Task: inverse folding
């Protein structure tokens, strides 16, 4: 019986563990995690802090009893500190300081990512927060509950910063969002980011862009967040959300090579450079399906799939991860922004001849009450007509998320933009049009391609 050891108990780790047990009920599976929250949805943390999800326990995809019912041994509060590939051993230290050595036949590293710490002076303090782990969310929540802060500054206008601007406004705070780039949500084109900014300002969030924060200064009346260009924003609490970096320290003790973005180098079977060790999730690089090269794109969706593939391969299969497209969606107050695939710059850098066309379109037939406009941008290759990427921003009711998934599915299958128009999509007047908005945007892209040559 093979001894399967998994370090990390979140999306990638649990997906691997469940897949192994699904395929081989006799396999001996142990999952070790540094904290006490196996299989929790950290994607839900902003909604716990906002109060929309009241009980943190509800964030568990499965509780520990359910996991153990699958005959998966779970070791909570044990941090793996070193991997010795020769005797095939991992050294663990428990929260109360005890050292344990544990052997393995096959090992998965699924240690995730850590909050990036930007070079800002004064980042430490009881009122300055990062958001990655359950413990981070408990710290933010109890600070708010006990101190009733009125003013919050969020550093970083990516999807976590945006969700937290929504969450902290929900908690009654005056929120300022500070972003180094010229526009928020830099994973989308600035034209789309501007729409999200408009939503933020309409909800009284102050948005400061194009300015680098250089220091958080502690004064008698609270914190002051200072930018290089002289903006000084007072705050009672600060949340730093400037991205994630792969947690690779453990993998490096095994001598595992690092790849794109400093993440663990894996091939498409999720095997690392070290024998009998796999890696999956935010700690590892990912295969980009359109670029056909490795990239670093830490997302829960990818972590689940990579973990599942790794689990199969730990049992001896040779399955390949089919690739990421970076498909992403975020709700900011009443607007939703989503993207998949490439945008102009990335596409041009990869040797494509990108053409991007934008269309504002009603989500369903206007004669039926409640129709709302959404904006769809399609990027395709002007020479071959191949679909390369898409972005959508629209009110929550316009099904942005599921419409971006149509594009993601088409991208997965290497379809042309024109091919989208041939899809047999559903229609009823309260929900769509005979040509779905996705198809209207595709027709528009084809017209633009003809006109622009
Ligand atoms: C606030 C927030 C919102 C998000 N929202 C979304 C979203 O809406 N959609 C989306 O797709 N993605 C989202 N993400 C990203 C998503 O949560 C991650 O991509 C996903 O959690 C990665 O899973 P993972 O298993 O690779 O790693 P992680 O979730 O980072 O888990 C790592 C695991 O490893 C354990 N660990 C780490 N080091 C050690 C060690 N040395 N020894 C033992 N155990 C260790 C940890 O305890 C943990 O169990 C969000 C992330 C955050 C922080």
Result:
């Amino acid at each position: 019986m093979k001894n399967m050891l998994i370090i990390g108990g979140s999306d990638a780790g649990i997906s691997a563990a469940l897949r192994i047990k699904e395929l081989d009920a006799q396999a001996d599976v142990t999952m070790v995690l540094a904290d006490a929250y196996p299989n929790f949805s950290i994607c839900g943390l902003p909604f716990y802090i906002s109060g929309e999800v009241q009980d943190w326990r509800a964030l568990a995809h499965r509780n520990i009893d359910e996991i153990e019912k699958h005959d998966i041994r779970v070791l909570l509060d044990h941090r793996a500190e070193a991997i010795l590939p020769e005797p095939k051993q991992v050294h663990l230290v428990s929260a109360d300081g005890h050292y344990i050595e544990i052997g393995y036949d096959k090992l998965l590293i699924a240690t995730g990512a850590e909050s990036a710490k930007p070079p800002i002076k004064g980042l430490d303090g009881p009122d300055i927060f990062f958001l990655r782990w359950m413990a981070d969310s408990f710290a933010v929540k109890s600070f708010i509950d006990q101190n009733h802060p009125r003013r919050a500054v969020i550093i970083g206008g990516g999807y976590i910063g945006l969700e937290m601007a929504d969450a902290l406004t929900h908690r009654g705070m005056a929120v300022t969002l500070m972003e180094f780039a010229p526009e928020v949500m830099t994973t989308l084109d600035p034209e789309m980011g501007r729409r999200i900014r408009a939503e933020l300002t309409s909800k009284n969030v102050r948005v400061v862009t194009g300015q680098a924060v250089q220091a958080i200064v502690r004064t008698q009346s609270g914190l002051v967040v200072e930018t290089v260009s002289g903006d000084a924003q007072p705050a009672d609490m600060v949340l730093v959300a400037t991205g994630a970096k792969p947690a690779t320290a453990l993998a490096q003790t095994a001598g595992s090579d690092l790849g794109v973005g400093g993440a663990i180098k894996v091939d498409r079977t999720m095997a690392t450079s070290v024998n009998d060790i796999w890696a999956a999730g935010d700690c590892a690089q990912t295969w980009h399906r359109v670029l056909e090269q490795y990239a670093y794109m830490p997302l829960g969706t990818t972590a689940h799939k990579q973990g599942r593939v790794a689990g199969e391969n730990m049992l001896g299969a040779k399955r390949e991860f089919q690739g990421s497209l970076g498909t992403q969606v975020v709700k900011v107050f009443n607007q939703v922004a989503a993207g998949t695939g490439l945008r102009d710059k990335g596409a041009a850098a990869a040797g494509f001849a990108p053409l991007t066309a934008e269309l504002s379109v009603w989500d369903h037939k206007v004669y039926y009450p409640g129709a709302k406009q959404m904006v769809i941008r399609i990027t395709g290759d002007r020479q071959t007509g191949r679909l390369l990427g898409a972005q959508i921003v629209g009110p929550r009711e316009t099904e942005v998320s599921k419409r971006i998934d149509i594009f993601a599915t088409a991208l997965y299958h290497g379809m042309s933009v024109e091919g989208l128009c041939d899809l047999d999509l559903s229609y009823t007047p309260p929900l769509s049009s005979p040509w779905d908005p996705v198809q209207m945007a595709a027709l528009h892209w084809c017209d633009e391609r003809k006109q622009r040559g």
Observations:
- Residues 3-42+58-114+245-314 form a domain with the FAD/NAD(P)-binding domain fold (CATH 3.50.50.60).
- The pocket of flavin-adenine dinucleotide is lined by residues 7-13, 32-35, 42-43, 45-46, 79-80, 110-113, 131-132, 160, 247, 250, 281-282, 298-301, 303 (CB under 6 Å).
